[in-house]
């Protein structure tokens, strides 16, 4: 990982090192943070803005959060507080975001939990959990998912949103069948 602090190259002294005004890169990520503390192979950051390189022609991921924790050996990052993810015209917010990248240049899975909200224009999806498979451009929503467009709404046990195809699928269960409310007021 290459780091700069306040515009100059930063060489961490070891666990417990605190850097301010940090920018850096690791694998597919470039990031900046107001403050970073290094603890035993993990970086804890505050005031984070991160972006991952574009994959397979898809727009790059951009993540903002009040704080994050990076485990460079495990290829994982965790973002908390005011989490916002942007991928092209799609925005996702959540309480917690966990990112796994499979190698030095590809984000694999982004998992959002707690008050998940996905927006694209007037389309809005809400759920307790959303899993974005970055390479496929697919978000799987669970935990009382609801997809709305204007006054139309789709609810079910599981909703999959395909970001690059502008389509969605719904899977129901005995307790949460797929239910579509359309503008004419009829429920189907």
Jot down its keywords:
16-stranded antiparallel β-sheet; 188 residues; lipopolysaccharide transport protein A fold; mainly beta; elongated
List the helices and strands and how they pair.
Elements: E1 2-5, E2 8-9, E3 18-26, E4 29-39, E5 42-52, E6 61-71, E7 76-87, E8 90-103, E9 106-120, E10 123-133, E11 138-142, E12 146-149, E13 152-155, E14 158-162, E15 167-171, E16 179-181
Antiparallel strand pairs: 1-2, 1-3, 3-4, 4-5, 5-6, 6-7, 7-8, 8-9, 9-10, 10-11, 10-12, 11-14, 12-13, 13-16, 14-15
Helix content: under 10%
Give the SSE string. Answer: EEEEEEEEEEEEEEEE
Number of helices: 0
Number of strands: 16
- Molecular shape: elongated
CATH class: Mainly Beta
CATH architecture assignment name: Sandwich
In CATH terms, the superfamily is Lipopolysaccharide (LPS) transport protein A like domain
- In CATH, the topology is named lipopolysaccharide transport protein A fold
- How many individual domains? 1
Range of strand content: over 45%
How many angstroms separate the termini? 53 Å
Mean pLDDT: 78
Radius of gyration: 19 Å
The secondary-structure class comes to mainly beta
Largest sheet features: 16 strands, antiparallel
